[in-house]
Amino acid sequence: MEEGAPMKIQRYKHDSENSYALGAALTYELVSNMPAYARRVFIRSNITKTAAVTELLSMCRNKRIPVTENDKAFNILSPKGNCFVIGEFKKPCFPIGNASHIVLVNPSDAGNLGTILRTAVGFGIDQVAVVRPAVDVFDPKTVRASMGAVFRARVQYFDSIEAYREAFPENRLYAFMLKASRPIGEVEIREPYSLVFGNEATGLPDRFAEFCESVVIPHSNGIDSLNLPIAAGVAMYEFTKEYWHQTKRNT
User: Fold this and answer.
1) 45-49, 149-153, 240-244 — which one is most confidently predicted on average?
2) Secondary-structure class of domain 101-249 per CATH
3) What is the pTM of this model?
C-alpha cells in the first residue's frame, strides 16, 4: 500500500473541493468510471480481504491511486463502523450536452436525488439538469443513494428554469404535474425531450404548464401523489420503452 502526501481529512461540506464514496462498492464505481478524479482510498486496519476488495486494491495499484490504511479517516467520515473502504475524489464538472434530459426543479432530498440518478442511468437518460435551490449531488448521502451511478451520469446545475430553457431551446419539455392536460400514455414523444419534475413537497408551480406540455401519471384516489423517485421512474420507462423494445428485437 502506498502512503500518499498527507492531506487533511475533514467531514464533507457543500463548498468542499473533494467528496467521498463510502463503501467498497461505491469506491469500485469511482475507480472504474472516474479514476482521474480519485485522489486516494482509505481502508480499515481490520478489513477482510475478500475477492472484491482484492480486485479493488489491484485496480488502485494499476491506476496509481494511493491506498492508505487509516482508521482515523473512518472515525471522521463514517463512524458507525460498518464501512471498511472510503474513496476520496475531486468533484467533477461535466456539463450536460444536447440530448434528452431529466430536469429536477428544487429537489431537497439527497436520497431521492441519488435514486433518480441511478434510475436515469439505468434507462439511458444519464444527463440530469438540476434547478437551484437544490440538494448537493456530491453529498456522500447522494452518492450512496445512487449506488455509484453518480460516477456514470452528467449533472449540471442551473439558477432557474429559464436559464435551462435558454441553454437547450430544442428540447421539448414535459412537466409532470397533478393538474395536467394529458395522461402519460397519451403523450406524443418528441426527441430531444426534457422530463421535468418539481420539489418533493410542492411539485411544480402552475406556471410550468404555460411553456411545458403538462403530463399526469394516473393513479388511484387512495394516495395524494406518487413520490418523486417513483414518478420519475415511471416517466423514464414510458419515454424509453420503445427504444429498449427495439433494442431487444434487434439482438
Assistant:
1) 149-153
2) alpha beta
3) 0.93
